[in-house]
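Q: My labmate handed me this sequence with no annotations at all. I'd like to see what the chain might look like in three dimensions before we decide whether it's worth expressing. Could you predict it?
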Amino acid sequence: MSTIPNTAMPHAKAAPEGEDSPSRGAMLRDGAKSIADKAKAHPKTSAAIGAGVIAATAGAVALTRRGRSGANGKARKAKKG
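A: Here is what I predict for the chain of 81 residues:
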């Protein structure tokens, strides 16, 4: 079994247990604050990312609704006419 020395990956040390380690809530707040700060610094990029998320969501909804028409949508159209 091989081991990786701490000098190769100093960030891989285990966090000590107890009050020194941040809670999940604090980590989420810090991450959200960081994202908000970056969004304020780059508003055009943030708007473009938001538009992309909305477009991707709309596309996923459209694909989902198209799939609900049945396993073979052509067969349904042929029966009507």
